[in-house]
Write a structure and sequence with these properties.
heterotrimer, A mainly alpha, B alpha/beta, C mainly alpha, A: mainly alpha, ABC transporter involved in vitamin B12 uptake, BtuC, 5 strands, C: mainly alpha, 8 strands, globular
Chain lengths: ~325, ~500, ~350
């Protein structure tokens, strides 16, 4: 009984992982050269920044909110980095710092508006997205290349795992952040407060949790993480442009949902987003391998998957509600 | 009883909301090892008093002392830290977290920079064992019954080392056994020297458990009394500030009339009606002009029966007849079309629409029955609303007032008006008098009898047995999701209902 | 009676005051800082001028904001409208297209399919999109943001599929009349909006739809228990929202004489939501004002036009839009907090704080 219960918590996550494996198996059977370590690793290499924002998106959704600004913040990050490096001739470390400060400030203001001025998370981060995109163009309207040696080194360095399979530094960064997020979500008071608030904000407040502080911090963290993702994005693109990472927030939300995070808040695992991103990536890869399909099929496929997941989740929840089983309790005299 | 024994003293507390004096110079004293009931009608100020004590609201004047030290909790977070913990009727925990986490959230033991989950679980089990409970603390909270969730809330409060435990209507959704359990624990805590403030609408429970009673009315202190020295009638009289005897008399006379008027002309009849998991198949017949009662403990299946009859939960077995014609009822809309009405026990969440006006709330069901196209004109709407506001004595400055701004009793009346406006033939009233003040209660009970006298069929559910006995001409008794018997006429008495429940086979 | 009338009026004033105020502020600014902003000329019997231009350009957004208002009032949201717009535009463009033919030696462009058929197909597709959203949200109970997210993501892919990844140019002239023609001196699309708005106002005020929608948006469970067909009403909202997006798609396609699956209606869902918010509607659902949203749409467009006219780089529009929304939202919430602080309301708030301790 006990094992069964604990397992049920992990079911959505297991389904996601299972689906990933199934897609990989299907690709391996259908296409030559698909079954390779590098194909899997490339999923990480190409989507490192998406994995990072997927994590913060999951945490914000678990909080009961949403962050639509992450794509725009990635664009702004790359623009701030490029500007700091090429115009201000800042040291790369300072450029990175500037990016993180700007993005954290964005997150903080959004969190403040949501928490203390009762903005809908949707509206506040929507405004944040507009402002961030606008700022990009105010800095520069064209594509700005990033030529800083440090950035170039980070972008081009490949770390060989096994012969014929390598990862980029971005992947290392992403994996470190994954570990950090698992720690934050499951082993810190802040992380548990996020779950509590997502479950029932009023209760969390009455239980004496620092609800307001947690909310502001979660959005600030989301901004900060978007900044990190933006830097990783720079390592990937080596250029900045105001329309970069367009609609990425939708991919991040999709990743979180496919990863088993419930949009209603309170339920989910941040690690799920990683597999969500991997699934989105592998579908893209499948379509590339197929060759004669247009790239917009990826969008339709992602949407289809999103749809299946949402509907299945919903049906599972409905079923659970329908036969609401009350667990047994022993009274000791 | 010396002053050194005083745990909490509240002196001259005043709290004003714009236009309303919620608390006017109220004193309150709680001693160690005392269970102290706070009684009063709606709007008496009980909740506000508790909120001031627990830091949810702030008093404008007056002082609070805990163990002789002046305190002024500013937020709901400060009070528990001071030793004042509150458990609310609607459990204020997080349903999505585990039981253990609910007990320890915000205070998790940290080891090596990480939350020590093993320790959390272990200590939770110990905390629950103190309440004589043993359960899987890693299970999600919402997998347990409300009673257990409440116990978890108490375990949390105790673990924060509460000196004062405030129980705000903890028994509203508990069944008898659960209440008994709760009381056992309350007595245990009392014997350990804790002071417990107990708010409830159930007078019997006040007498069963409390040592002292503080009575409030309209924000003012009526007095503090020793429970043993205050009889029920006195208590009620002090709560409502008038003589109740007259109400009782008129109601009793009406009962006899209604009982006589009841006949066997069945309006609604169901055979084998049921829904797996929620209610076992049952037969029921409701005649025109009678008040049929569904009696039983909470969770016995009485509300579930009502929901199946009204089509909220689609029945998966049985057949129904209305006016001797076979019908199928799968949704509330089906039921309403056949002349049914349903006042839910959850007035706020399933009854009124708080953001709409009284007028809109009253015509809503009627309009729903007429459909989208046949929109009542503004004038017709006003006429209907005005009529029922007058008829039911709904107290409001205007029919354009938002229903959310009304008192509980008036909200209930608006809800009744909504269904009366549809000229329903069968009214299903689930706890129509719960949480409303005694005056409004009597009016609603009178209305129920009046409806039956006018030839309507009424299905009444109430957890107050005396109310059921007073109003019903027949009664179906439920136990463990099953109908176990029926009482009628002279058989109907509190003791017979209890005997039926006690003796009924599963 | 008298006091009630006054209260009714105050309610309306409350809801429409801020959007009108915002619009007025913008127009006053334009009056002082932009030369000839209020000038309206008559050229070839058509009225020209910045004001006319604003209204004309705002028509797609006004359509979207009407649909969005209903969806938001029902307690939901529809973020797929931009994609639906793209699909509708793509269908219209590809079905009309324009083949070059010579009639009596004169060049003519004729439509592939009759224009009416093309428009009908586009609108049906848009409504189907709305119904799909309704299926997920009303029937299956999926969260509205998530439910419409699916079509948002898929929609552009589908639109791309329809146009096979190309920008489709339309050559058939009668089609242009919808987006850029004039009727009795005014742009034709203004009449379309007016007619549609009248239809929706009739639906909302003269049938019980408005009441049902407000009840549903305020308390879904109660509404169901009151016998309202909650699903049908929600379904209707999403279908209307789809229809609005469809009409907007046709207008946009007609205006720019082409369909661009990638960029048509990009971010317009956000503008539509902003219009609704600016119109004084609560994102939480319940009470709503369609007129408010239409004014909101005008505010958004006036803002855009003003920024262009002032000579600030167009990209700044986004920043200013966002900041204006933040400011107006702040003012609204400030005002809302004050006006709501009646005793009963604050007592209610207290009860909420205590977790609805009393039933």
């Amino acid at each position: 009984m006990k094992n069964l219960q604990i397992n049920s918590k992990f079911v959505p996550l297991l389904i996601t992982i299972g689906l990933f494996l199934a897609l990989f198996a299907a690709g391996s059977v259908s296409y030559e050269g698909f079954f390779s370590m590098q194909v899997v690793l490339n999923l990480l290499v190409d989507n490192a920044f998406l994995i990072i924002v997927g994590l913060s998106q999951a945490l914000v959704i678990i909080l009961g909110g949403i962050d639509l600004s992450c794509g725009a913040l990635i664009a702004l990050s790359s623009m701030v980095a490029a500007y700091s490096l090429s115009h201000l001739n800042l040291h790369p470390a300072l450029a990175v710092l500037a990016v993180l400060i700007v993005c954290s400030a964005f997150g903080f203001v959004q969190g403040w508006l949501i928490t203390y001025r009762k903005f809908q998370p949707f509206i506040a981060t929507l405004c944040g997205m507009f402002v961030a995109r606008g700022l990009c163009f105010m800095i520069n309207q064209d594509t700005v290349p990033i030529t800083d040696p440090f950035f170039v080194t980070m972008a081009t360095t490949r770390i060989k795992l096994i012969p014929g399979a390598a990862i980029s530094t971005s992947v290392i960064i992403a994996l470190v952040i994954v570990a950090l997020y698992i720690y934050i979500a499951h082993f810190t008071k802040f992380g548990r407060a996020v779950y509590a608030i997502g479950g029932n904000e009023q209760s969390a407040r009455l239980m004496g949790l620092p609800v307001d502080r947690t909310k502001v911090l979660a959005y600030t963290l989301s901004g900060f993480t978007s900044g990190l993702a933006g830097i990783v994005f720079c390592f990937y693109m080596l250029s900045a442009y105001g329309l970069n990472a367009m609609a990425l927030e939708m991919d991040a939300i999709a990743a979180a949902v496919i990863g088993g995070t419930l949009m209603t808040g309170g339920v989910g695992f941040v690690i799920g987003s990683v597999f969500g991103v991997m699934i989105e990536g592998i579908m893209q890869t499948l379509i590339t391998f197929q060759g004669d399909l247009n790239s917009w099929w990826t969008r339709i496929a992602v949407a289809f998957l999103l749809c299946v997941f949402i509907v299945v989740q919903r049906v599972l929840v409905l079923k659970r509600e329908a036969k609401k089983r009350i667990r047994p309790v022993e009274f000791i005299a | 009883m010396g002053t050194e024994n005083v745990l909490v003293r509240m002196d001259g507390i005043c709290k004003e909301f714009p236009g309303v004096k919620a608390l006017d110079n109220v004193d309150f004293t709680l001693r160690h090892g005392e269970i102290h009931a706070v009684c009063g009608e709606n709007g008496a100020g009980k909740s506000t008093l508790i909120k001031v004590l627990t830091g949810v609201e702030h008093n404008e004047s007056g002082k609070i002392y805990l163990d002789g030290v002046a305190i002024s909790p500013k937020t709901p977070m400060e009070a528990p830290a001071l030793g004042i913990s509150t458990v609310y009727q609607e459990v204020n925990l997080c349903p999505n977290l585990s039981v253990a986490e609910n007990i320890f959230i915000g205070r998790e033991p940290i080891r090596n920079g990480k939350i020590d989950w093993k320790e959390v679980n272990k200590r939770s089990e110990i905390a629950l064992a103190k309440l004589n409970l043993k359960l899987d603390v890693s299970g999600r909270l919402d997998e347990y019954s409300v009673a257990i969730q409440q116990m978890v809330a108490i375990a949390r409060a105790l673990d924060i080392s509460a000196k004062v435990l405030v129980l705000d209507e903890p028994t509203s959704s508990l069944n008898k056994i659960e209440v008994a359990n709760l009381f056992r624990i309350m007595r245990k805590l009392k014997s350990e020297g804790m002071g417990i403030i107990f708010i409830t609408h159930f007078l019997e429970q006040v007498y069963e458990i409390s040592d002292q009673i503080t009575i409030l009315r309209n924000g003012q202190l009526v007095g503090q009394f020793e429970t043993a020295k205050l009889d029920r009638l006195q208590l009620i009289a002090k709560m409502i500030g008038k003589d109740l005897a007259e109400f009782e008399k008129t109601i009793k006379e009406d009962v006899r009339d209604a009982g006589a008027a009841a006949n066997e002309d069945a309006f609604y009849q169901a055979r084998n009606l049921g829904q797996q998991g929620s209610i076992n198949p049952f037969d029921i017949k409701i005649g025109k002009g009678e008040v049929m009662g569904l009696a039983g403990l909470l969770g016995s299946g009485r509300t579930e029966s009502a929901r199946v009859i009204f089509g909220i939960d689609e029945p998966d077995s049985g057949e129904t007849e209305v006016d001797n014609k076979k019908v199928e009822i799968k949704t509330p809309a089906d039921a309403i079309r056949l002349g049914f009405a349903f006042c839910s026990e959850n007035r706020k969440t399933e009854g009124i629409v708080a953001n709409l006006t009284i007028r809109e709330n009253i015509i809503l069901a009627l309009q729903g029955k007429r459909g989208m196209g046949a929109y009542l004109s503004h004038k017709e709407q006003e006429e209907i609303a005005e009529k029922y506001v007058k008829l039911l004595n709904i107290i409001t400055p205007s029919i354009e007032q938002l229903v959310g701004n009304l008192s509980g009793g008036n909200q209930q009346k608006v809800l009744l008006a909504r269904w009366l406006a549809t000229e329903a033939e069968l009214l299903i009233l689930d706890e129509p008098t719960r949480g409303i003040d005694i005056g409004a209660k009597a009016e609603v009970q009178k209305l129920v009898l009046q409806l039956a006298a006018d030839g309507k069929a009424v299905l009444l559910i109430s957890s107050e047995l005396d109310e059921m006995v007073r109003c019903c001409s027949r009664m179906a008794v439920y136990k463990d999701k099953q109908k176990i018997g029926e009482l009628k006429g002279a058989e109907i008495s509190e003791i017979n209902v209890m005997k039926t429940i006690a003796g009924g086979q599963k | 009676m008298e006091s009630r009338k006054k209260m009714d009026k105050r309610l309306i004033d409350n809801q429409l005051f801020w959007p009108l105020f915002a619009l007025a502020v913008l127009l006053v600014f334009d009056f002082f800082y932009l030369k000839g902003f209020f000038q309206i000329e008559i050229v070839e019997g058509h009225l020209y001028g910045s004001l006319i231009d604003i209204v004309n350009r705002a028509t797609p957004l006004m359509f979207m904001s009407i649909g969005m208002t209903l969806v938001i009032a029902s307690g939901g949201i529809d973020i797929s409208v931009g994609s639906v717009l793209a699909i509708s535009g793509a269908i219209t463009a590809i079905m009309i297209g324009g083949d070059l033919v010579f009639v009596d030696g004169v060049q003519h462009h004729v439509a592939h399919y009759p224009m009416a058929v093309a428009i009908l197909v586009a609108l049906v597709a848009a409504v189907v999109g709305g119904l799909w959203n309704g299926l997920l949200i009303a029937k299956l109970g999926v969260n509205a943001m998530v439910g419409t997210l699916i079509l948002l993501v898929a929609g552009r892919g589908i639109a791309q599929l329809i146009v096979d990844g190309n920008v489709i140019t339309v050559y058939y002239e009668p089609f242009f009349y919808i987006g850029s023609g004039f009727f009795l001196g005014l742009p034709f699309s203004i009449y379309l909006v007016a007619a549609f708005l009248a239809l929706i106002m009739w639906l909302v005020k003269k049938t019980a739809f408005g009441l049902f929608l407000e009840a549903l948006g305020s308390n879904r469970v109660s509404s169901r228990f009151t016998g309202l067909n909650v699903q049908k009403i929600m379904w209707a909202c999403y279908a209307i929202s789809g229809l609005c997006a469809g009409i907007a798609g046709i207008i946009v396609a007609s205006e720019v004489k082409s369909a661009d699956a990638n960029n048509a209606g990009l971010f317009i869902e956000l503008d539509a939501i902003l219009s609704v918010v600016l119109g004084g509607n609560s994102m939480a659902g319940g009470r709503f004002s369609v007129i408010g949203s239409v004014i909101g749409a005008l505010v958004v467009q006036t803002l855009t036009t003003t920024i262009y006219a002032v000579g600030v780089p167009p990209e700044v529009t986004m920043v200013v839009k966002a900041l204006v929304v933040i400011v107006i939202y702040l003012i609204q919430s400030q005002m809302g907090m004050k006006t709501l602080k009646t005793p009963a309301a604050s007592a209610g708030e207290g009860a909420l704080k205590a977790g609805e301790a009393k039933s």
